[in-house]
Structure formats: structure tokens, C-alpha cells
Amino acid sequence: MSDDQTLTKPRVKTKPKVERPKLHKVILLNDDFTPREFVVMVLKAEFHVGEDLAHKIMITAHRRGVCVVAVFPQDVAETKATRATDAGKAKGYPLMFTTEPEE
Ligand code: TYC
Known about the structure:
By secondary structure, this protein is an alpha+beta fold. Helix content is about 50%, strand content about 20%. It is built from 4 helices and 3 strands; from the N terminus they run αβααβαβ. The protein binds L-tyrosinamide.
């Protein structure tokens, strides 16, 4: 290779095209019927939070209408939201968890 070619060779840096997948929030919705203790129990069982944090999440949803429980990759968030919602359904409660992508 001549010096000439060496000097004029374009140096193209390729930008990686992969983007980190967005995390999804699991959101707990308030309702008027599900007992508080049941909400706390489901939060502990499905999201592996302790009693104090579970109570804090429950009371925040109770007072404000909604509370973000945690963030996960989309498939994990959707599975957990479904399982937690189904736990309420199995007892005849309208307990509801939804998911949405993080900003
Ligand atoms: N509001 C319910 C009650 O007073 C308790 C509750 C809290 C239900 C949070 C759902 O996401 C919830 N029994």
C-alpha cells in the first residue's frame, strides 16, 4: 500500500445500532374493595419486597390512586403484573396491576 493511499483512507467509525431495551414500570391501581392486608401480601409474594415497603406502596396507591411498584424488562413486568392481578381475581377482588414503558 502506497503512502498516498494510507493518508487518504477514510476512517469511518461505525456507531453500534443496538439500543438498551426500555424498562417497564409495574403500576398498582387503587380500588375500593381489596383489603389492604391482601394488597400487602401480594406485593410481598410477587415483588419480593419486605413488609414495610409493601405497606408503603399499598398506602401510596390507596391515597394517590396509583403507585409504581418496580421496573423490569417488559416481559418480566407483564408477567408479574398478570400474576399479581390474577392473585386478586382468584379471591374475587378487583385488584389491578398494569405496566407502562419508562420514559
Ligand atoms: N383502597 C383499598 C381499601 O380501602 C385498599 C387498597 C389499597 C386497594 C391499594 C388497592 O392498590 C390498592 N380496602
